[in-house]
Amino acid sequence: MYLTEVNTLQIIRKQYQFKLKAYVGAFTSLLVMQVTAILFSLGGTGGMSSSDGYLYISGTQYNGSIVIAFTMLWAFISSILITTKAYRNDDFTFVTNRFTSHVSNIYFLLAASIFGGITAMLSGYLLKLIAYLFYNYDAILVTEHAISSILVGATSTIFYILLFSALGYVIGVLVQLSKLFIILIPAFVIGNLFLQAGERVSPLVDFNKVVHFYISESSILLFMVKVSVTILVLFSLSIFITNRMEVK
Amino acid sequence: MSVIKCEKLTKSYGENKALHELSLTVEENKITGLIGRNGAGKTTLLKIIAGYLRKSSGNIEVFSEQPFNNLKVSSNMIFVDDQMNFPTALHLKELLYVAKDFYPNWDMDLAERLFDYFSFHPNERHHRLSKGMKSTFNMIVGLASRCPLTIFDEPTTGMDASVRKDFYRALLKDYIAFPRTIILSSHLLNEMEDILEDILLIRKGEKYLHMPISDVKAYAFGIRGESSAIKEWSSDKEILHQKQIGDGSSYIVVTNTSYKLAKSAKLEQFTISPVAAEDVCIYLTRNEKGDIDHVFNRG
To answer: In sequence order, which residues have a C-beta less than 8 Å from that of residue A161 and are 6 or more positions away?
Structure first.
């Protein structure tokens, strides 16, 4: 019987198509997460009220911020999930090596993050619609966005979701490498938070600075570069540390 | 052309050596039976060949390449065992289509006919199947993928007798139509010896024997007769197995070479019988501590 010559890109494409079908559960959980987040948002995602004794004004804000936060959490958890043994072994039932398995996972996470980001963005409009249809407000103010700012909003949402996804992935991979990381990673995060809260000892990693590094970026292009580089580093690290790992 | 080539292949887990300096060659388009006791290293060897596990030392080549993490080996090989994972989200029928996508030689017609024959339901899910049905489904995937190297690690786990028979028959028929290299590991040698060409016997991680099945069948002879006569006759022979029989007679198994040497001697007084390949393998891989009777003989 003749031997098949292999084409890495072709295998990655097949794996990716396979994962879109096989990991459909990830999209179901996205749906559940976003519906839950929408329910949480029904009371308004922000508000203000003011009074000068005669006049009382109160306002309620509706946007997709809670949905976006939940979607980030979903991306983080789903990424950890697809690094687990059961998912990994599914790949090795068919044709793969460690590299193609990771790259197709990354493609899948990219697609899932884009989908999650867009639906999260749209849910903001859904909330506004619900407020318009079902609540009796005296006045409704709709902030109109130019197409360009919608695009900027969608892009940055997607990039934030991807960032959490990459973070989840590398944590998942570390746990696959050694179960010790199940204890080490939370210990590091929580311990660091305590150090950060106190004032005497400086934390190992200043989370505020890390967060600031991304959210303070006012240029969308620079933000995209910052996030892309981070994601690239996290995913490459994941591929690198498991390339010699035994499976099954 | 040889498909698998190992030289002094060793795999160790800490102090424990699962494979110890194993050297072997498996030729193209042969059905080889991998036989060994529990823990002899069969699965470890197969998983190294499949590229799942890394060798510790020595050398291994599959299709002239290092198998670990090798896409070419993965594309031309399928590894079927009872722990084969399939995504839980897909139905059985969808799984066949996924397999078709990955394996270029996949025969959908064969897969569907076997699928119907074993009465699978297209909408069932793999993780809900019984143990025997899982093995049967895995076997269908293993056969229909027509990989140049097909590895079955204990494929008949949980199958009932008639499905096992069907499996061996299907395997043989498909092999004759589309010859390829097949490795079968199993404990049940006597039911698969008809389809095997070669036997590879490993013992404690080392190769013990690798020869055509016909040679294994003629490897030893059973001789039965009066105990003292047997004892005298066999004093200088290589005895694989001996057993006392109630009426003062004994049964011994000697290798073919010792039998030939002694052919001239007074063999007429004994009853001579062939020894099944499975029994040969059992005698060759038995424990040095003696058989299970020794556990109970405290006196």
So the answer is: A68, A71, A72, A75, A113, A116, A117, A120
